[in-house]
């Protein structure tokens, strides 16, 4: 069975840790691994605008010896005349993996069900799992082992970032808290899934409406824009609802004395976070941004290796059965 990465809990705790270990090695010796030598091509499809995702995947695929094939859906048949299934069946004959930054999670799931090459969720409305691999790598660099750390997400709990923090951090054995207005709480099923994973890993999940309760004693404090792509018409309403959830020095003072601050960027300075925090001594956002490159390289290398091993095993099993 082909391994894909569509949401954070597609990986077990051990698999997540193995990818992060590989990312550390790749960051230490950036051009040593060439699993895409040939060069093999990777299709990187964009429905949404992007800076960090576009650059990190383009550079990362090149670092791995491959050729990044950047596709805009505005200039392709996908989303217009052609279904994700038909696109996947064409691409799998020409590329070694498919990376897609899109809107609906259902399209990713349809594409993954239709192809024999790995499909990677580079962002959807529901999850942003590649960002979380970079975030976990950054936390490891600055705070050591992930298990047992407490991380607080403050802001839009119904966002793809909040959902991914719940699933990825629970998978890592962390204590993850989300502080969000009641009308912007995380999806109930995502919370349930995160709680189930936390029960396996020794982590925990807490969803509250009080941002101070979420941040109190936390080792890591994170936030994201209050107005995501596609929600611009709701900006004024959201600014009113999220009043009090801004990460400023006063809120950050409730975290642990050595707590760090993270933001996936781009940031609306003065809205979800103050300039003093994002540019301050606790902020590790630039390491976080760089680590998109290393984490995604490790993810692609791991998926290619996992699928090669699975294919070899299936071939061996088939040969044995035939005999």
From TrEMBL:
L-ornithine binds at residues 160, 224, 228-229. Pathway: Amino-acid biosynthesis; L-arginine biosynthesis; L-arginine from L-ornithine and carbamoyl phosphate: step 1/3. The keyword Cell cycle does not apply. Carbamoyl phosphate binds at residues 50-53, 77, 101, 128-131, 264-265, 292. Its EC number is 2.1.3.3. It holds the Pfam family OTCace_N. Residues 3-141 form the Aspartate/ornithine carbamoyltransferase carbamoyl-P binding domain. Keywords: Cytoplasm, Transferase. Residues 148-303 form the Aspartate/ornithine carbamoyltransferase Asp/Orn-binding domain. Transmembrane segments: none annotated. PROSITE patterns: CARBAMOYLTRANSFERASE (PS00097). PANTHER family: ORNITHINE CARBAMOYLTRANSFERASE, MITOCHONDRIAL, ORNITHINE TRANSCARBAMYLASE, MITOCHONDRIAL. Belongs to the aspartate/ornithine carbamoyltransferase superfamily. OTCase family. This is Ornithine carbamoyltransferase. It comes from Curtobacterium salicis.
């Amino acid at each position: 069975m082909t391994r894909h990465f569509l949401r954070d809990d597609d990986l077990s705790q051990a698999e997540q840790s193995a990818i992060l270990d590989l990312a550390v090695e790749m960051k230490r010796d950036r051009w040593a691994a060439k699993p895409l030598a040939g060069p093999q091509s990777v299709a990187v499809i964009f429905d949404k605008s992007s800076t960090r995702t576009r650059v990190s995947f383009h550079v990362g695929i090149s670092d791995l010896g491959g050729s990044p094939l950047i596709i805009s859906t505005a200039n392709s048949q996908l989303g217009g005349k052609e279904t994700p299934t038909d696109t996947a069946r064409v691409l799998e004959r020409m590329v070694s993996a498919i990376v897609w930054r899109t809107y609906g999670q259902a399209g990713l799931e349809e594409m993954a069900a239709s192809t024999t090459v790995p499909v990677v969720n580079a962002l959807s409305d529901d999850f942003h799992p590649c960002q979380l691999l970079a975030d976990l790598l950054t936390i490891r660099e600055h705070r050591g082992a992930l298990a047992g750390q407490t991380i607080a997400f403050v802001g839009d709990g119904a966002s793809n970032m909040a959902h991914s923090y719940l699933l990825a951090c629970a998978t890592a054995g962390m204590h993850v808290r989300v502080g969000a207005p009641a009308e912007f709480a995380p999806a109930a099923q995502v919370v349930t899934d995160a709680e189930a994973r936390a029960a396996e890993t020794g982590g925990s999940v807490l969803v509250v409406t009080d941002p101070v309760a979420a941040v109190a004693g936390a080792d890591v404090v994170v936030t994201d824009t209050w107005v995501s792509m596609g929600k611009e018409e709701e900006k004024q309403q959201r600014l009113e609802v999220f009043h009090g959830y801004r990460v400023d020095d006063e809120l950050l003072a409730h975290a642990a004395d050595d707590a760090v601050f993270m933001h996936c960027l781009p940031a609306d300075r003065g809205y979800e976070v103050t300039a003093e925090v994002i540019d301050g001594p606790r902020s590790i956002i630039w390491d976080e941004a760089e680590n998109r490159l290393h984490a995604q390289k490790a993810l692609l290398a791991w998926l290619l290796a996992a699928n090669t091993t699975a294919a070899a095993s299936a071939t061996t099993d088939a040969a044995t059965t035939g005999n």
